[in-house]
Amino acid sequence: MDRGPGWLYGGVTATMTEPLTAADRCDRCGAQAYVRVVLPVGELLFCAHHSREHAPKFAAMATHVQDETDRLLEEHGAGALR
Ligand SMILES: [Zn+2]
């Protein structure tokens, strides 16, 4: 029975994804980070603004993207995303 390429994604689902905290800061501007982009060589943190600007560039090589921008809406309202 062919189970498909499940082995290929085993490492991805096993990635530890600790919740982002107020101590996690955007690598570009120092604002609170809400998106973590895990790369084979490390990871990058972005605020909501810079995740929209930069995350698409890293999506192709990222092993995991942790997007917590939904939390930004809950905590600060829709105005925080403007
Ligand atoms: Zn930023």
Automatic annotation (TrEMBL):
Residues 20-72 form the DUF7455 domain. It comes from the Bacteria. InterPro entries: DUF7455 (IPR055878). Pfam families: DUF7455. This is DUF7455 domain-containing protein.
